[in-house]
Amino acid sequence: MADSRIAKLKGVPLFAHCTNKQMEFIATQVEDMEFPAGRVLCTEGHSGGDFFMLLSGAADVTRNGKPVAKMVPGDFFGEIAVVDGGPRTATVTTTEPSRCLVLGPRQFQNVVHQNVDIAHSVMKALTLRLREAGAAKAD
Amino acid sequence: MADNNIEFLKHVRLFEDLDRKSLEAIANAAVEQSYTAGQDIVRQGDTGVGAFIVKKGRVEAFQDRGGHMHKLAEMKAGDVFGEMALLDEFPRSATVRAVEPTTCLGIQRWHFRGILESHPQIALALLPVLTKRLRNAEREDEASAKH
């Protein structure tokens, strides 16, 4: 059973550079959850919460009621609130039956400690959003 | 020389949450470089290879917007620019020019990567710094969108 959990982790881009040993540990931290279509996974403005990696399905990201992105398998979201416990910057709602690996704040810290590539990928995602925020300002 | 750079880095806001060991690693990887007044330190459109911290002097950031040079900011000792190039390979979004004789500490992306590997606590300390900056940037966006 542990093997099938690790096999699942291997398909997650965020863990692409992890060793088998790190995967074994990560497998003990993540929760594998299934959601029906239309389920709200994060609500804009609500404090704190979990970090999600989409394994299958799809989800819409909205801010102030306006669509800002679509999540596809391999994408992750919730990294800001899981890091600082602050309010969610967007609402994420599944648009089809979806499966996610979920990490709580504590588990997220544990996993990031395992392999710096994970922290690096999350930092890169944050940087990209910072660029987008900066670009919007320059317009 | 690395020693006085550690003291200096301690006061750089981006690194304020780092412990001495982490600062030491960054100070060791940093390359000090001097620029004359009027010299470009980075040019808009070039692929960024790393971040700069102004150690001495004064610099100005400009953005070319359809042929018009638009001044974005003036930076002095302790200010950091180009830091996003530590994490990605986008073209520089602005030109930064020395206004007076200036000394900068440069940190290159591949060095930073190595530092993160040997000092994972830096990544952990920088994550909340990044989320804070992002929240501020997005709040400003929203405020300006309302006007």
Write the layout of secondary structure elements.
The complex is a heterodimer of chains A (139) and B (147).
Chain A: H1 2-10, H2 20-29, E1 31-35, E2 40-42, E3 51-56, E4 59-63, E5 66-71, E6 76-77, H3 79-84, E7 91-94, E8 98-103, H4 105-114, H5 116-138
Antiparallel strand pairs in A: 1-8, 2-7, 3-6, 3-8, 4-5, 4-7
Helix pairs in contact in A: 1-2, 2-4, 4-5
Chain B: H1 2-10, H2 20-29, E1 31-35, E2 40-42, E3 50-56, E4 58-65, E5 68-76, E6 80-81, E7 95-98, E8 102-108, H3 109-118, H4 120-146
Antiparallel strand pairs in B: 1-8, 2-7, 3-6, 3-8, 4-5, 4-7
What does this structure look like?
The complex is a heterodimer of chains A (139) and B (147). With 139 residues, chain A is an alpha+beta fold. Chain A has one domain: Sandwich (Jelly Rolls). Chain A has helices at residues 2-10, 20-29, 79-84, 105-114, 116-138, and strands at 31-35, 40-42, 51-56, 59-63, 66-71, 76-77, 91-94, 98-103. In chain B, strand 4 and strand 5 form a beta hairpin. In chain B, helix 1 packs across helix 2 and helix 3 packs across helix 4 (120-146). Chain B has helices spanning 2-10, 20-29, 109-118, 120-146, and strands spanning 31-35, 40-42, 50-56, 58-65, 68-76, 80-81, 95-98, 102-108. Chain B is of the alpha+beta class. The N and C termini of chain B lie far apart (49 Å). Chain B has one domain (2-146): Jelly Rolls. The interface between A and B is medium-sized, with 27 and 28 residues.
